[in-house]
Amino acid sequence: xxxxxxxxxxxxxxxxxxxxxxxxxxxxxxxxxxxxxxxxxxxxxxxxxxxxxxxxxxxxxxxxxxxxxxxxxxxxxxxxxxxxxxxxxxxxxxxxxxxxxxxxxxxxxxxxxxxxxxxxxxxxxxxxxxxxxxxxxxxxxxxxxxxxxxxxxxxxxxxxxxxxxxxxxxxxxxxxxxxxxxxxxxxxxxxxxxxxxxxxxxxxxxxxxxxxxxxxxxxxxxxxxxxxxxxxxxxxxxxxxxxxxxxxxxxxxxxxxxxxxxxxxxxxxxxxxxxxxxxxxxxxxxxxxxx
Length: 291
Known about the structure:
The protein is α/β, with parallel strands linked by helices. The protein folds into 2 domains: 7-115 and 275-285, Nucleotidyltransferase, domain 5, CATH 3.30.420; 116-274, Nucleotidyltransferase, domain 5 (2-Layer Sandwich), CATH 3.30.420.40. 40% of the residues lie in helices and 21% in strands. It has helices spanning 44-61, 84-91, 105-114, 154-169, 177-185, 190-197, 202-206, 209-217, 223-242, 256-259, 278-285; strands at 7-13, 18-24, 29-35, 72-78, 99-104, 119-124, 128-134, 137-142, 248-252, 270-272.
């Protein structure tokens, strides 16, 4: 058995934010913090920099910044991990740590949600992905990124809202409170939205999702269909995960709570509350203790 190191850091890196937690060998939380995006597929170098800054902040908060990194186990559950080569590439950036384990954010979240037990996971955040984990083996569904996937995600919800706002601005559909709100964000300038879109990332689109949910909850004629379509996509993802042989599926991610009331009931699987969050999943991945 690999000996435990004095400290373990877990990192949950997503398309919008990167969250970290430091626990000691007894599982006690010493520090927590968060930083910006850490999707290694979209921007590898910036993501690594963000993670390293976050680690430094955690050590300073815990007042142990002078310790050697060799005393720390590091668990990284990151968006944008698409193949084993990605895991090795990330791990090579943290060779000074005593132990480094890298996995996708879905794997870390599934471990946090179910511990060592079999179970499924659907991430509904800036992006979307599904995962079934049985006997330690994980099978992923989706997670193709904003260009080719992420149906039902916060990014897609925001993207759709912007599209509908532009259609309304061009007289191709009726305005609603949502489309007017979106246009007001850009001073009612359609060209400003077009220019913004040229450099916008998935997290930028996802920043519009909260207002779409707000208006959907009030029955807005544009917002409500967007959210209903997103819920159908999340439900389809959960159904595909259950088809892999798991019946307990945890729903996690930034929009998971908001989308839950819109999901239809299905006898083939149960949506369960995660036991722990993805950060603790990353800590468990690295062999750390949880108090």
